[in-house]
Protein backbone atom coordinates (compact mmCIF):
# COMPACT_ATOMS: atom_id res chain seq x y z
CA UNK A 1 0.00 0.00 0.00
CA UNK A 2 1.25 3.47 -0.89
CA UNK A 3 0.83 6.46 1.40
CA UNK A 4 0.37 9.23 -1.16
CA UNK A 5 0.94 12.00 1.36
CA UNK A 6 3.41 10.17 3.60
CA UNK A 7 5.70 9.08 0.75
CA UNK A 8 6.13 5.57 2.12
CA UNK A 9 5.43 2.10 0.76
CA UNK A 10 3.78 0.02 3.48
CA UNK A 11 3.33 -3.75 3.74
CA UNK A 12 0.37 -5.16 5.65
CA UNK A 13 0.00 -8.83 6.57
CA UNK A 14 -1.72 -10.99 9.19
CA UNK A 15 1.05 -10.28 11.68
CA UNK A 16 0.94 -6.51 11.28
CA UNK A 17 -2.28 -5.37 9.65
CA UNK A 18 -2.87 -2.24 11.74
CA UNK A 19 0.26 -0.13 11.38
CA UNK A 20 2.05 -1.98 8.61
CA UNK A 21 5.77 -2.17 7.92
CA UNK A 22 7.59 0.48 5.91
CA UNK A 23 9.52 -1.28 3.15
CA UNK A 24 10.55 1.76 1.13
CA UNK A 25 10.54 5.54 1.26
CA UNK A 26 10.95 8.27 3.80
CA UNK A 27 8.37 10.71 5.11
CA UNK A 28 9.22 13.42 2.60
CA UNK A 29 8.90 13.79 -1.15
CA UNK A 30 12.24 13.36 -2.87
CA UNK A 31 14.17 12.16 -5.90
CA UNK A 32 16.91 10.14 -4.20
CA UNK A 33 17.21 6.36 -4.65
CA UNK A 34 15.47 5.81 -1.30
CA UNK A 35 12.58 8.23 -1.97
CA UNK A 36 9.60 8.80 -4.23
CA UNK A 37 7.29 11.74 -4.71
CA UNK A 38 3.99 10.49 -6.11
CA UNK A 39 3.44 6.77 -6.61
CA UNK A 40 0.32 6.70 -8.80
CA UNK A 41 0.43 2.95 -9.46
CA UNK A 42 2.36 -0.06 -8.18
CA UNK A 43 3.00 -3.52 -9.62
CA UNK A 44 4.63 -6.59 -8.06
CA UNK A 45 6.39 -8.95 -10.49
CA UNK A 46 6.93 -12.71 -10.17
CA UNK A 47 10.18 -12.25 -8.28
CA UNK A 48 8.61 -9.95 -5.71
CA UNK A 49 10.10 -6.74 -7.07
CA UNK A 50 7.84 -3.71 -6.67
CA UNK A 51 7.49 -1.12 -9.42
CA UNK A 52 6.27 2.37 -8.54
CA UNK A 53 5.00 4.89 -11.09
CA UNK A 54 6.61 7.97 -9.55
CA UNK A 55 4.79 10.45 -11.75
CA UNK A 56 5.97 13.63 -10.04
CA UNK A 57 9.56 12.60 -10.77
CA UNK A 58 8.73 11.40 -14.33
CA UNK A 59 10.09 7.91 -13.73
CA UNK A 60 9.21 4.34 -12.80
CA UNK A 61 11.34 2.93 -10.00
CA UNK A 62 11.98 -0.72 -9.15
CA UNK A 63 12.33 -1.85 -5.54
CA UNK A 64 13.78 -5.32 -4.97
CA UNK A 65 13.17 -7.32 -1.76
CA UNK A 66 15.42 -6.50 1.19
CA UNK A 67 16.92 -3.49 -0.57
CA UNK A 68 16.32 0.00 0.75
CA UNK A 69 17.45 1.60 -2.51
CA UNK A 70 15.52 1.62 -5.77
CA UNK A 71 16.71 1.59 -9.36
CA UNK A 72 15.15 3.58 -12.19
CA UNK A 73 13.35 1.15 -14.51
CA UNK A 74 12.10 3.81 -16.94
CA UNK A 75 12.44 7.55 -17.38
CA UNK A 76 14.96 10.10 -16.20
CA UNK A 77 14.64 11.29 -12.61
CA UNK A 78 12.97 14.70 -12.27
CA UNK A 79 13.27 15.34 -16.01
CA UNK A 80 10.22 15.20 -18.26
CA UNK A 81 10.59 14.65 -21.98
CA UNK A 82 9.32 12.89 -25.07
CA UNK A 83 12.39 10.87 -26.08
CA UNK A 84 12.14 7.08 -25.81
CA UNK A 85 14.21 7.12 -22.61
CA UNK A 86 12.02 9.80 -21.03
CA UNK A 87 8.57 10.00 -19.48
CA UNK A 88 6.19 12.83 -18.72
CA UNK A 89 3.73 12.14 -15.88
CA UNK A 90 3.70 8.32 -16.05
CA UNK A 91 0.57 6.66 -14.69
CA UNK A 92 -0.56 3.03 -15.03
CA UNK A 93 2.11 0.32 -15.22
CA UNK A 94 2.23 -3.43 -15.88
CA UNK A 95 5.04 -6.00 -15.98
CA UNK A 96 4.59 -9.17 -18.04
CA UNK A 97 6.09 -12.66 -17.64
CA UNK A 98 9.22 -11.57 -19.54
CA UNK A 99 9.66 -8.62 -17.17
CA UNK A 100 8.83 -6.12 -19.87
CA UNK A 101 7.51 -2.93 -18.29
CA UNK A 102 4.51 -1.22 -19.90
CA UNK A 103 3.86 2.43 -19.03
CA UNK A 104 1.06 4.88 -19.76
CA UNK A 105 3.12 8.00 -20.48
CA UNK A 106 0.24 10.40 -19.93
CA UNK A 107 2.06 13.66 -20.56
CA UNK A 108 3.07 12.42 -24.01
CA UNK A 109 -0.25 10.63 -24.74
CA UNK A 110 1.46 7.34 -25.52
CA UNK A 111 2.16 3.87 -24.19
CA UNK A 112 5.73 2.55 -24.10
CA UNK A 113 7.20 -0.89 -23.41
CA UNK A 114 10.62 -1.21 -21.74
CA UNK A 115 12.51 -4.50 -21.98
CA UNK A 116 14.27 -5.47 -18.78
CA UNK A 117 17.49 -3.49 -18.37
CA UNK A 118 16.89 -1.30 -21.43
CA UNK A 119 16.49 2.43 -20.63
CA UNK A 120 14.91 3.07 -24.04
CA UNK A 121 11.29 2.17 -24.47
CA UNK A 122 9.51 0.80 -27.50
CA UNK A 123 6.58 2.82 -28.80
CA UNK A 124 3.28 0.91 -28.87
CA UNK A 125 0.71 3.56 -29.73
CA UNK A 126 -0.40 7.14 -29.21
CA UNK A 127 -3.84 8.11 -28.00
CA UNK A 128 -5.72 11.36 -28.47
CA UNK A 129 -4.59 14.11 -26.12
CA UNK A 130 -7.13 14.59 -23.35
CA UNK A 131 -8.75 11.17 -23.71
CA UNK A 132 -7.75 10.39 -20.12
CA UNK A 133 -8.57 13.46 -18.06
CA UNK A 134 -8.12 11.60 -14.77
CA UNK A 135 -5.66 8.84 -14.00
CA UNK A 136 -5.37 5.93 -16.44
CA UNK A 137 -4.37 2.33 -15.78
CA UNK A 138 -3.60 -0.72 -17.89
CA UNK A 139 -3.29 -4.49 -17.98
CA UNK A 140 -2.34 -7.15 -20.56
CA UNK A 141 -3.81 -10.44 -21.70
CA UNK A 142 -1.92 -13.60 -22.67
CA UNK A 143 -1.77 -12.59 -26.34
CA UNK A 144 -0.01 -9.32 -25.54
CA UNK A 145 -3.00 -7.05 -26.10
CA UNK A 146 -3.02 -3.96 -23.88
CA UNK A 147 -6.19 -2.84 -22.10
CA UNK A 148 -6.41 0.68 -20.71
CA UNK A 149 -8.99 2.14 -18.33
CA UNK A 150 -9.57 5.87 -17.96
CA UNK A 151 -12.39 8.39 -18.32
CA UNK A 152 -14.74 5.49 -17.66
CA UNK A 153 -13.75 3.80 -20.93
CA UNK A 154 -11.85 0.59 -21.63
CA UNK A 155 -9.72 0.59 -24.78
CA UNK A 156 -7.75 -2.29 -26.30
CA UNK A 157 -4.59 -2.24 -28.40
CA UNK A 158 -3.47 -5.40 -30.20
CA UNK A 159 0.09 -6.08 -31.39
CA UNK A 160 -1.06 -6.23 -35.02
CA UNK A 161 -2.21 -2.60 -35.11
CA UNK A 162 -0.91 0.80 -34.05
CA UNK A 163 -4.27 2.14 -32.89
CA UNK A 164 -6.51 1.33 -29.95
CA UNK A 165 -10.23 0.61 -30.08
CA UNK A 166 -12.91 1.25 -27.48
CA UNK A 167 -14.42 -2.03 -26.30
CA UNK A 168 -16.35 -0.73 -23.27
CA UNK A 169 -18.07 2.66 -23.67
CA UNK A 170 -17.73 5.21 -20.92
CA UNK A 171 -21.41 5.04 -20.04
CA UNK A 172 -20.81 1.79 -18.17
CA UNK A 173 -18.25 3.18 -15.77
CA UNK A 174 -17.44 6.20 -13.68
CA UNK A 175 -15.28 9.03 -15.02
CA UNK A 176 -12.11 8.24 -13.08
CA UNK A 177 -10.64 4.76 -13.26
CA UNK A 178 -8.58 3.22 -10.50
CA UNK A 179 -7.73 -0.33 -11.57
CA UNK A 180 -8.35 -2.76 -14.43
CA UNK A 181 -7.69 -6.50 -14.45
CA UNK A 182 -8.57 -9.54 -16.58
CA UNK A 183 -9.37 -13.11 -15.60
CA UNK A 184 -8.40 -16.27 -17.49
CA UNK A 185 -11.62 -16.12 -19.54
CA UNK A 186 -11.02 -12.57 -20.74
CA UNK A 187 -13.59 -10.92 -18.49
CA UNK A 188 -12.71 -7.35 -17.53
CA UNK A 189 -12.83 -6.11 -13.94
CA UNK A 190 -12.58 -2.41 -13.13
CA UNK A 191 -12.53 -0.46 -9.89
CA UNK A 192 -13.86 3.09 -10.36
CA UNK A 193 -12.71 5.85 -8.04
CA UNK A 194 -16.08 7.48 -7.45
CA UNK A 195 -17.85 4.65 -5.63
CA UNK A 196 -17.15 1.49 -3.64
CA UNK A 197 -17.62 -1.41 -5.99
CA UNK A 198 -16.08 -3.53 -8.71
CA UNK A 199 -17.48 -3.78 -12.22
CA UNK A 200 -17.26 -6.96 -14.28
CA UNK A 201 -17.68 -6.75 -18.04
CA UNK A 202 -18.11 -9.79 -20.25
CA UNK A 203 -16.79 -8.78 -23.67
CA UNK A 204 -18.10 -12.00 -25.23
CA UNK A 205 -21.74 -11.49 -24.31
CA UNK A 206 -21.45 -7.68 -24.28
CA UNK A 207 -22.95 -7.32 -20.80
CA UNK A 208 -21.81 -5.56 -17.68
What does it look like?
- The structure is a single chain.
- The protein is mainly β.
- The protein is built from no helices and 18 strands.
- The strands form five sheets. Strands 4-5-6-7 form a four-stranded antiparallel beta sheet, with no helix packed on it. It has a four-stranded antiparallel beta sheet with strand order 8-9-10-11, with no helix packed on it. Strands 12-13-14-15 form a four-stranded antiparallel beta sheet, with no helix packed on it.
- The protein is globular, with a radius of gyration of 17 Å.
- The relative contact order is 0.09.
Instruction: Give, in order, the helices and strands.
Output: EEEEEEEEEEEEEEEEEE
Distance between the termini: 29 Å
Estimated helix fraction: under 10%
Global mean pLDDT? 84
Attribute tags:
single chain, 208 residues, mainly beta, four-stranded antiparallel β-sheet, 18 strands, 0% helix, 44% strand, globular
